[in-house]
Specification:
heterodimer; A: about 325 residues; ABC transporter involved in vitamin B12 uptake, BtuC; two-stranded antiparallel sheet; B: about 250 residues; four-stranded antiparallel sheet
């Protein structure tokens, strides 16, 4: 009897890493299948698929940034506000008539500096939890964005500025039709995600980010400068929010006060659905991407079927709860006590 | 053991204040190559504080440290590691979410350059881990196993392996058997004995007389943050050492 149990456990332990790594992709594929069956003509059409990617483009940047923060067992509530402030800075610089290559860099710098401010506050001011610091900056950054713009939308950017969010890569040379283009934002998502996957999995700093999430005192005892790594993580999170602002500027052609409102919650939800653990040290870049996709497809699919947005909220909320419950089960079974 | 040689590590007159609290007062300690020093004392006697001073985690308020006869000032754990002074913490200081190999090399990962970028060299980590675990006769399924999947004894073995992976000269262990099942204690004590044979100086902090009397050569007692008593192990008895812990001579 005991032997049987051991066998069961060892099979479970063997499957565990694969479930942890690819289980979420399974869910994603399942969702795509279901949507395809429900909407066979529309869902997998070129137009709709590119549409999904365009819709998730800026959210995927926020989610990736928040993911890194969550890996360190922290949280960043200010990403939506960082994106709004970066967008406003971009709009003002653009309206002032700066050349496009300056306009394009400004949101990245603004986002980075906001993240640096968060990181410095959490480490140097020794805030008891990143929640508090970033809750504060959620208000500070959005307020600043409204102060510098007067709280009114600023519209009209040049094509160069809009390229990353709005650009199209023509595929007619492949024999495809003119409407079957590749959104530049899709390529950008792929490039950014691949770079950050390498960074988190193959660089020492990336490994230390996971180590800090796993056991901060172990990291400190190993001679890792934990505060420095945390500042890097929050700065990169801000930088990614800045990229989000640049994409959004392209998509909407406007800097507006409500940009990114509550999008920090979407970003956190995508990470959690994608298997990142709030306890830190757990989760993959691929998982976050799957999380972002699941939320994007859910919204898109339900819109196609004319389901009210209220039901969308209920469904997304349910998926979060279920995903976290799976995380709880995994912790119970996967670790020896 | 050759106590006549110069000590490998010596602490003189270590004092440490935390605000108005005196955690250590004028404490001396020394350990020689191939020797195991046992440090005993009641809770709050200052053992852990002393170890944290030796590992560079705390800066002493006054007093000095000598390593191989030379005075050293430790600003961080990195400094003590660079000297060959390693610490095995009571809470093991391992990251459970990382594999064994990455824990052993945490903070000192081997890298390879591809162009101008530095990437972790996972093959080298695995290779070095297997070689090192083999040398210490530590059995695990695979160097890729996550630490959270290991038993307490295996984790302690990994923690010790971690401390000795970089030519450690002195290894300091805080309660190395406290969290272990009885059958695992023996294995860890064997590991300490084999470390001594390689010429490493070992400092063991422990409450357990069994630990002290099976691996140590010398024992010193702290009481209320001061040196209370010290003796070669052969010149004392369990009852006497237990008396020291309680402040009786």
């Amino acid at each position: 009897m005991e032997e049987k149990d051991n066998k069961k456990e060892s099979l479970y332990l063997k499957l565990m890493p694969y479930i942890e790594k690819y289980g979420i992709l399974l869910l994603l594929v399942l969702m795509i299948l279901v949507m395809h069956i429900l909407q066979p003509d529309v869902f997998l059409s070129w137009r709709n698929v590119t549409n999904v990617f365009k819709q998730i483009s800026w959210q995927s940047m926020l989610a990736l940034g928040v993911f890194m923060v969550i890996v360190t067992a922290g949280i960043d509530l200010s990403v939506g506000s960082i994106m709004m402030l970066s967008l406003m800075v971009l709009a003002i610089v653009a309206k002032a008539g700066a050349p496009w290559f300056i306009v394009v860099i400004t949101p990245l710098i603004a986002g980075f500096l906001c993240g640096l401010f968060n990181g410095a506050g959490i480490t140097l001011l020794r805030m008891p939890h990143p929640f508090i610091m970033t809750l504060g900056t959620l208000y500070i950054f959005r307020g600043t964005g409204n102060l510098i713009s007067g709280g009114t939308p600023i519209s009209g950017f040049t094509d160069e500025v809009r390229y990353l969010g709005h650009g199209r890569i023509d595929l007619t040379w492949l024999g495809l039709e003119k409407s079957q283009y590749l959104p530049v934002s899709l390529v950008l998502i792929a490039v950014v995600y691949i770079i950050f996957w390498f960074f988190l999995n193959h660089s020492r700093t990336g490994k230390w980010i996971y180590a800090i999430g796993g056991n901060p005192s172990a990291a400190r005892a190993s001679g890792i400068n934990v505060n420095k790594i945390l500042i890097i993580v929050y700065s990169l999170c801000g930088f990614l929010s800045g990229i989000g602002a640049l994409i959004l500027a392209g998509r909407t052609d406007s800097g507006y006060p409500n940009a990114g409102l509550q999008s920090e919650l979407d970003a956190i939800a995508a990470c959690i659905i994608g298997g990142a653990s709030f306890f830190g040290g757990r989760g993959t870049v691929l998982g976050v991407f799957a999380g972002v996709m699941i939320m994007g497809i859910l919204r898109n699919g339900l819109n196609l079927m004319d389901v009210s947005s209220f039901w969308q909220q209920v469904l997304i909320g349910s998926i979060i709860v279920i995903a976290v419950y799976i995380d709880v089960l995994r912790r119970d079974l996967g670790t020896r006590k | 053991m050759s106590t006549f040689n110069n000590p490998l590590l010596e602490a003189k007159g270590i004092t440490k204040y935390f605000g108005t609290i005196t955690a250590l007062e004028n404490v001396d300690l020394k350990v020689h190559a191939g020797e195991c020093l046992g440090v005993v004392g009641d809770n709050g006697a200052g053992k852990s504080t002393l170890m944290k001073v030796l590992s560079g985690l705390y800066k002493p308020s006054s007093g000095s440290l000598y390593f191989q006869g030379k005075e050293e000032i430790l600003e961080s754990p990195k400094d003590s590691q660079n000297l060959g002074l390693e610490m095995v913490y009571q809470d093991l200081a391992l990251a459970g979410n990382l594999p064994i190999g990455e824990n052993i090399f945490l903070g000192r990962e081997p890298t390879k350059n591809i162009g101008f970028l530095k990437f972790l060299d996972f093959n080298k980590i695995k290779e070095l881990t297997n070689a090192h675990l083999g040398k210490l006769k530590i059995n695990v399924k695979s160097a890729d196993q996550k630490v959270e999947e290991l038993s307490g004894g295996q984790r302690q073995a990994v923690a010790i392996a971690r401390s000795t992976a970089f030519n450690a000269k002195v290894v300091i262990m805080d309660e190395p058997t406290a969290a272990l099942a009885i059958k695992e204690v023996g294995k860890v004590l064997d590991l300490i004995n084999s470390l001594k044979k390689t010429g490493v100086g070992v400092i063991v902090i422990s409450h357990r007389m069994d630990d002290i009397f099976s691996v140590c050569d010398r024992v010193m007692a702290l009481f209320q943050g001061t040196n209370f008593a010290e003796s070669e192990l052969s010149d004392t008895s369990r009852d006497e050492v237990i008396g020291w812990i309680m402040g009786k001579k």
